[in-house]
TrEMBL record:
It holds the Pfam family RLMG_N. It comes from Microbacterium koreense. Residues 193-361 form the Methyltransferase small domain. This is Class I SAM-dependent methyltransferase. InterPro entries: DNA_methylase_N6_adenine_CS, RlmG_N, RsmC/RlmG, SAM-dependent_MTases_sf, Small_mtfrase_dom.
Length: 367
């Protein structure tokens, strides 16, 4: 089958007008790295931050084999696998966690720049610590999401950073000469005796966002034996529940590998890791139907950097699948997003529990 970037899809992530599986930055990264990849031996190419497979499959279609890939979102991994299978390139790459093995002895790294400087610092440090001394990194993105501080972060770990000309509102930073490498470690902050841990790129970092604080202030006094924290982020809600309710076990899940690592570190730091299990999952796909009494949710509204109102209803629908009849979904959301109609339709009767100047906490009962 002839490969074309235009044929890539985002599934199982949201697919809607204006939400593309490939953009101009992907194409520029591939073009800028083409010469460096041309004579590369198998197994020495690494792809990081590939949204839906454009970078990986673009390299594979040019002949690369043994590509090592890390994507933070599990939906990105699933989209890459589906796209690769469709075009017959699924044997060309291996998906790996963000650790030393994914970048060890790499000669070329192609990557999308993360928006978080801490995430970029973690990735750059890891490459500098474990890649080949001659490694060349091609890190690109949309100009509207890039800052000069990204250049400085790369210069912390590489002796030379070059900047390409802009094309279609995209640009690539090219880094050489790795130095001062380091494996990622979670940052920590203490809030009211709760230790929050966060690897670079985790939502809200080591802070506790306003919506989560409102949800914490209105948690039920009585908890069932098991609670689900869907889209758990850094694990703040899961850790608080486990500390307040010693008999309750918490199943926490998130699509983001960084969030999962952060939540596990948060549970460990607060001494509740034995009662908080954290998994990377697309929604609650690993959970059976109609088995949960209580699900807590602070739904995301960004998909690969794009703001979309279509994301949260997927969470509501899967929460409804997992809740038993009469079970409750306790949800916090930005009041301007007007979620009650979707909650009523997808879950069941919904009431307002609390509201401040920006956020609302609602409780929906599974019909």
């Amino acid at each position: 089958m002839t490969f074309s970037l235009d044929d890539l899809r985002r599934r199982p992530d949201i697919e809607a007008p204006g939400l593309a599986a490939v953009d101009a930055a992907d194409r520029l990264i591939l073009d800028e790295s083409a010469a460096a990849r041309q004579s590369l031996d198998d197994g020495h190419l690494v792809v990081i931050g590939d949204s839906y497979g454009a970078l990986t499959l673009g390299c594979a279609a040019s002949g690369a084999r043994g590509i090592r890939v890390h994507q933070d979102a599990i939906t990105g991994e699933q989209a890459l696998a589906a796209n690769a299978s469709h075009v017959g390139l699924d044997s060309r790459f291996t998906s790996l966690p963000l650790d030393a093995d994914v970048v060890r002895d790499a000669r070329v790294v192609v990557m999308r720049l993360p928006r978080s400087l801490d995430a970029l610092r973690d990735i750059a440090g890891l490459i500098a610590a474990h890649a080949d001394p001659e490694v060349v990194v091609f890190a690109g993105g949309r100009i509207k999401h890039m800052t000069l501080a990204m250049n400085e972060v790369l210069r912390e770990h590489f002796t030379r950073v070059d900047v390409t000309h802009a094309r279609q509102k995209s640009r690539v930073l090219i880094a050489r000469g790795p130095r001062a490498g380091a494996d990622p470690a979670p940052r920590q902050a203490v809030h009211d005796e709760l230790t929050v841990c966060a690897f670079g790129g985790a939502f809200a970092g080591t802070s506790i966002d306003i919506g989560t604080r409102l949800l914490l202030d209105h948690l039920p006094h009585d908890m069932p034996d098991e609670v689900i924290d869907l889209a758990c982020g850094t694990g703040v809600v899961a850790a608080v529940i486990a500390r307040r309710h010693p008999r309750t076990r918490v199943h926490a899940s998130d699509a983001s590998a960084v969030a999962v690592a952060s939540a596990r570190a948060t549970a460990e730091a607060n001494g509740v890791a034995d009662r908080v299990s954290v998994v990377q999952d697309d929604l609650l796909r690993s959970r059976d139907d109609a088995g949960a009494d209580l699900i807590l949710l602070n739904p995301p509204f960004h998909s690969a950097g794009a703001v979309t109102p279509d994301l949260a209803p997927r969470f509501f629908a899967d929460a409804a699948r997992v809740l038993r009849p009469g079970g409750k979904l306790l949800c916090v959301w930005n009041s301007g997003l007007r979620y009650p109609a979707a909650l009523e339709r997808l879950v069941g009767p919904t009431v307002q529990v609390a509201r401040n100047t920006k956020f609302t906490v609602s409780a929906s009962t599974r019909r």
